[in-house]
């Protein structure tokens, strides 16, 4: 047995173990796009809440009609951002996987989605129930913390960098809990700025060298 | 450069078999089609290597149906795990030998 063969064997064990357990076609660019959508959404939410001299914001303790109207608009806005972000993410990830010739619906991507889905579903229910009870302050910190937990849980099936993004979202969420009243700002930082930074890093770290492969 | 082969497992001499074992050690179980895609080999090729590992009792096979499609899952057996570890150790020893 030649020395080169041993090294080849070992490196093939390494890469195959990595590839069999981790889904590495996640697109960095989709993170940047999600961040941009989030910033646009946060701005839209800001104008809704604080338009007309903050009528809607003040209404949280007063006028029920204005309150319900604003809540509904915010809910639709959030849903639109979520749907657009997720579809962009799926589209860019499928494109990246195709280009690299690897499968999108694989054992690793299934594990990735399953492990991330649980904290997201639990958090989603938790936030919606508290929201309906009138605890509006819970939305931003809740979203950040549960999203962060989902990222940390899912990170074992993809790039390790996702874990760091998750930890930062959790930290930001806790900070937002401690500073009530700045929810929208923290939400914009967590979902907007952090996503853009993370996506840019990922794009230059993996996507570009991925083109060579 | 030739080196002596102590503890070197013949079953893992083939690269594909070594890779199959790597996947099964890193994952609880893996199905036939995913393995095929991951290793980029033909049905027949993969099946024959899996058969060989099965004969050594390094892997266990679990056949079931997903709807009407057959779904065959493979798992590393205890013997297989131990053999894989021993093989890695043998590779490590070979490298050490050559450095002396």
Summarize the structure.
The complex is a heterodimer of chains A (213) and B (100). Chain A has 213 residues and is mainly alpha-helical.
Descriptive labels:
heterodimer, A: 213 residues, mainly alpha, 84% helix, elongated, B: 100 residues, alpha+beta, Arc Repressor Mutant, subunit A, 3-stranded antiparallel sheet, 4 helices
Describe the structure.
Chain A has 213 residues and is mostly helical. Chain A has one domain (30-90, 106-212). In chain A, 84% of the residues lie in helices and 0% in strands. Chain A has helices at residues 3-21, 28-59, 64-100, 107-132, 139-154, 161-178, 183-212. The longest helix of chain A is centred in the middle third of the chain and has 37 residues, at 64-100. The model of chain A has no long low-confidence stretch (mean pLDDT 87). Chain B is of the alpha+beta class and 100 residues long. Chain B has a three-stranded antiparallel sheet with strand order 1-3-2. The model of chain B has no long low-confidence stretch (mean pLDDT 87). Chains A and B meet through helix 1 of A and helix 1, strand 1, helix 2 and helix 4 of B. Chain A: The chain crosses the membrane at residues 23-46, 74-92, 112-132, 138-159, 171-198. Chain A: Keywords: Membrane, Transmembrane, Transmembrane helix.
């Amino acid at each position: 047995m030649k020395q080169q063969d041993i090294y080849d064997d070992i490196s093939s064990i390494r890469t195959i173990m990595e590839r069999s357990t981790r889904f590495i076609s996640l697109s960095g660019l989709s993170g940047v796009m999600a961040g941009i959508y989030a910033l646009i959404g946060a701005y839209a939410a800001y104008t809704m809440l604080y338009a007309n001299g903050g009528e809607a914001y003040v209404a949280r303790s007063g006028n029920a009609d204005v309150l319900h109207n604003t809540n509904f608009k915010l809910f639709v806005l959030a849903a639109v951002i979520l749907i657009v972000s997720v579809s962009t993410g799926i589209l860019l990830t499928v494109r990246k996987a195709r280009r690299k010739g690897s499968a999108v619906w694989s054992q690793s991507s299934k594990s990735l989605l399953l492990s991330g889905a649980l904290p997201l579903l639990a958090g989603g229910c938790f936030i919606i129930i508290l929201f309906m009870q009138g605890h509006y302050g819970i939305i931003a910190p809740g979203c950040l913390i549960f999203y962060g937990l989902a990222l940390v849980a899912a990170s074992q099936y993809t790039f390790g960098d996702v874990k760091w993004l998750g930890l930062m979202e959790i930290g930001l969420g806790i900070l937002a809990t401690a500073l009530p009243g700045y929810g929208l700002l923290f939400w914009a930082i967590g979902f907007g700025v952090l996503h853009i930074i993370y996506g840019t890093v990922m794009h230059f770290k993996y996507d570009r060298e991925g083109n060579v492969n | 450069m030739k080196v002596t082969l102590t503890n070197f497992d013949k079953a893992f001499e083939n690269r594909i078999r070594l890779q199959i074992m790597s996947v099964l050690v890193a994952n609880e179980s893996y199905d036939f089609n995913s393995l095929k895609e991951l290793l980029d080999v033909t049905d027949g090729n993969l099946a024959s290597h899996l058969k060989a590992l099965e004969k050594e009792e390094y892997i266990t096979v679990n056949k079931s149906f997903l709807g009407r499609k057959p779904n065959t899952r493979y798992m590393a057996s205890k013997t297989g795990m131990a053999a894989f570890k021993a093989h890695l150790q043998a590779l490590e020893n070979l490298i050490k030998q050559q450095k002396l």
